[in-house]
Design a protein that fits this description.
72% of the residues lie in helices and 10% in strands. The chain contains 9 helices and 8 strands. A hairpin with a 2-residue loop joins strand 5 and strand 6 (378-380). The protein has a 6-stranded antiparallel β-sheet with strand order 3-2-1-8-7-4. Helix 2 runs antiparallel to helix 3. The termini are far apart. The protein has helices spanning 3-69, 73-100, 104-133, 140-200, 202-220, 240-285, 292-306, 349-357, 410-477; strands at residues 311-318, 325-332, 343-344, 361-363, 373-375, 378-380, 384-392, 395-404.
């Protein structure tokens, strides 16, 4: 075989290897892209749907309880209407999920959710019928049974969500495995190309050795535990080796993007879980609240640590119309009477202006004269302040002011807004119960007063009868 034929054969082999190598890299990158798209789009969408269902379910549960214990017929009808709307939304989400699932186990979890939710809705319909008929004394057994179904539905939703997250992890693991195989294929192809080049001629080896060594050195510097920053290969030639460098650089960019999206997705899921867990804890805390003072104290003691607030004050509206003002009910980490002003009028100061405008104020440039945050070691000036109104039926029923030594994160601001959405309803419910207790006490006092008057009248009547019996005796003796 002539040198020319050998050279052509050698370069033909090298070219074939390069084509195979580049094709393998292309398929590897394409496979990894599809896997990451499945993680970011498909799985995230399913997890987001079940998270939305769970939030609607929690809201429906609160509305159901509100319809049972609320005395205002308008509020009861609003709660029943909200239950219907939430049920329609959940059914829509279930229907959407049933059309996009692609795993048998996912269908199993979804069927369990649908079955238990159907049982939950049946009991819910019975409860709403009792509420409409005014048979509230027959609801307690149904609520007990409803609690069991509620636990099953929540557990099914959590299982479905956990399974989808496990599928995301499995897909990510598959992408990493594909990357490893592609990397080994790349190294093997480079070695085969080097061997073929050596058989053709020394000058081919000499011309390609430096470039191959550059590729090998870059690959050895890769930290496989951190894909956020990968090294790049400097493209110095326009031959097959240069194509490898370009493909590697594109692969590195794709891996970096995938790593970034994975971290963003994980961070969003963690934030959503934190918000939902916090809202669930707040909802549990509202149980067995007897008055607004207790509600304010519990709310601040729970909210302040979650918001990383070092100081907090709770004001509730008293009076109506022009006589409306806001009175302090509780404070967190305050110094007795100095923990904020005792009361203020709408439009008075920053907090009064926030109440008047019905919107939150966030301050990161603290005005002079603001309260210091104190500890056993001394005093420190807050770094950020958040003044938020608590609305009920578009009326400001309370104001909450928080001060922190750090800037308040966006996820915590969103959590506070969602927490205050239910606080207004809770304040109204507590006021209603307090008013009922007040009227009951007045009724009892009036009953006792009437009883005392009756006893006095009876005593006077007996005295008169006794005097009448004594008078005839006196006349006869005379």
């Amino acid at each position: 075989m002539s040198f020319k034929k050998k050279q052509l054969t050698g370069f033909g082999i090298i070219l074939l290897l390069m084509i195979v190598l580049i094709t393998g890299i292309f398929f590897m990158i394409n496979n990894m892209k599809n896997n990451m798209l499945e993680i970011v789009e498909d799985r995230y969408y399913k997890v987001n749907l079940v998270t939305e269902m769970r939030q609607l379910f929690f809201q429906s549960d609160r509305e159901l309880l509100n319809s049972v214990y609320e005395k205002d017929k308008t509020q009861v009808n609003d709660s029943l209407e909200q239950l219907k709307q939430n049920h329609d939304l959940i059914q829509k989400d279930l229907y959407t999920l049933s059309g996009i699932l692609n795993h048998k186990q996912s269908y199993i979890y979804l069927n369990e959710i649908e079955e238990n939710y159907k049982a939950y809705i049946n009991i819910e319909n019975k409860i709403t019928e009792k509420v409409r008929d005014g048979k509230l004394n027959e609801i307690q057994p149904l609520l007990t049974e409803q609690k069991v179904n509620r636990t099953l539905v929540i557990r099914n939703m959590n299982d479905f969500k956990a399974y989808q997250e496990s599928l995301m992890k499995s897909t990510l693991k598959s992408a990493k495995s594909t990357y490893q195989k592609g990397l080994y294929t790349l190294i093997l192809g480079a070695l085969l190309a080097l061997a073929a080049t050596a058989m053709v001629a020394y000058w081919v080896i000499k011309s390609t050795t430096n470039n191959l060594k550059n590729i090998s050195d870059v690959m050895k510097t890769i930290d496989f535990t951190d894909m956020s920053t990968l090294p790049r290969i400097t493209v110095g030639t326009k031959d097959e080796i240069g194509d490898i460098a370009v493909a590697f650089n594109e692969m590195a960019y794709s891996l970096e993007e995938s790593s970034r999206k994975e971290k963003e997705f994980t961070s969003k899921i963690e934030e959503q879980n934190w918000v939902q867990t916090g809202l669930a804890e707040m909802a549990t805390m509202y149980q067995r609240i007897e008055d607004l003072d207790m509600l304010a104290a519990r709310f601040l003691s729970k909210l302040a640590p979650m918001m990383d607030a070092s100081y907090a004050v709770f004001y509730a509206r008293v009076g109506e119309g022009k006589n409306a003002r806001y009175r302090k009910l509780a404070s967190f980490a305050g110094e007795g009477q100095n923990a904020g002003r005792m009361e203020f009028l709408p439009g008075e100061g920053l907090i009064g202006q926030a109440a008047l405008e019905k919107r939150a104020h966030i301050l990161e440039e603290i005005p002079e004269g603001y309260t210091f945050i104190t500890s056993g070691l001394g005093e420190v000036f807050p770094k950020s302040i958040m003044i938020v109104p608590v609305l009920f039926e578009d009326e400001v029923v309370a104001m909450v002011e928080l001060a922190s030594l750090e800037n308040i994160q966006e996820v915590k601001r969103k959590f506070l807004v969602q927490a205050l959405d239910t606080l207004g309803l809770t304040i109204n419910s507590v006021k209603g119960r307090m008013e009922i207790e007040r009227l009951l006490k007045e009724s009892q006092a009036q009953t006792e007063e009437l009883q005392m008057q009756s006893e006095e009248l009876q005593t006077q009547s007996e005295e008169l009868h006794r005097q009448k019996r004594c008078n005839p005796n006196q006349k006869s003796s005379a």
